């Protein structure tokens, strides 16, 4: 794989963000980590198939799904490189003669021929809820029924816990949405994750976030390429304004005279080193992806500037690698209300996380300039003008933020699920999964 290297980066304490690397040729042969200067003077870097395969063999790939068609999920799972362990976390409806979840489990086994390493769990599984309750993560449970709350972030957290406990030898965890209608793109996403980790040269805390080549929209029976989705356009603009303030020339960062630093605020397709995944606090629902940035900003930078951090400061640098793929992202169309809820959740996660630091200068700027209070005020105005405020509170929605998994007793989490193995709580296939989840 050959990529154009990022051209600039910014650091805020322990948070290091590079702008987009672009995939030039997904399958170009290249010796490990070879660097070149191309004809335009841009730097490129190449990775051999063997290098990427080595990373993929250390990766768990998670597919969170809710109410997706079986044939679409199958297409996604089948496109994931065989070396990855797949974890399907489903929050689909259950019951009836054609139980959707059981069909998904059967599909997972059939796609791998029973040999590829794969697991499936239902988000509302009683043993999974008991495991979180016992290990100290009861915040994840819905008091109404004692089960894990619905939401994408909650499903992802469950997957990280499963990977940490049952596949501890795997160094990386990636996420690919189940509604990818274009299987070839999924293959490129997985290889892009591997290239991102290879670029970060063994960093303990690394996050690789993908931006798609384009997002085709069906208009009047024709596909038109759109560079940025409706939700991403808003969330990226505000994250960019937070982390690269001079780039913002107008409210919301609409007008910029140079490429954005942050282009992956809402990246459903992203991957983390496991060391980082268990340290991050994850936000509920659709706030999960944008909140990655603010959690690291708070715990790796702001916590040292002002009183009132809400979580323990990080101790190790976090590298954010952003990669633009070549493949377009084709997914199920979503309505305007869904988009509005998604960007409001994303902005809410930024707004509320920054609350304790109102008096601080904007990250990376000196005293006397804009403060975080100014930034929050502008964000509030934007949300008010665009229907993003919660009707009951008059505020941007405040996301539920879960404690980092490293604070939970993951050994106990594993014991509870292992004990429930016989009841079929967790389905596991492939070598090392036959009757014993812990890979004996
Ligand atoms: P969009 O594609 O970014 O508009 O967002 P979607 O609503 O399609 O959700 C992104 C991914 O998260 C899809 O694969 C969904 O099936 C999945 N997802 C959404 N809600 C949940 C949930 O409550 N639990 C799980 N496990 N997955 C979810």
From TrEMBL:
GO CC annotations, alphabetized: cytoplasm
GO-annotated molecular function: mannosyl-3-phosphoglycerate synthase activity
Classification via InterPro entries: Nucleotide-diphossugar_trans, Osmo_MPG_synth
GO process annotations (BP): mannosylglycerate biosynthetic process
Pfam families associated with the record: Osmo_MPGsynth (PF09488)
Listed Gene3D superfamilies: Spore Coat Polysaccharide Biosynthesis Protein SpsA, Chain A
Superkingdom to which the source organism belongs: Eukaryota
Name assigned to this protein: Glycosyltransferase family 55 protein
